[in-house]
Hints:
single chain; mainly beta; CD59; 48% strand
Amino acid sequence: MWLLASSVFLCLTLGDAVMCRRCYTLRPWIPCTPEGGICAAVANEMLCMTLKVYKDFELWQKILSCTKIDDDRCDEWHIDDTSGRMFAYSCCSSKDFCNED
Length: 101
């Protein structure tokens, strides 16, 4: 019963929120950490975000999270002159867990 009440409360609280995957470390050889992490991108306030880090032109790490809707990094990329790593940001709100695509 407690689980049902919690689920109803969560749905009423989040309203039109899109659920996003949250991973601070996701590498080809390391699973998502924290495992099962999620965040809610509330409509007109937040977006799901993916940050892909490339090292030597190969995907080295992904970071999945939520970000503010006015985050100017969305759909941007840059190369760090010191490390040579490329950082590519993308944001979405089209469906639940869209930042996993």
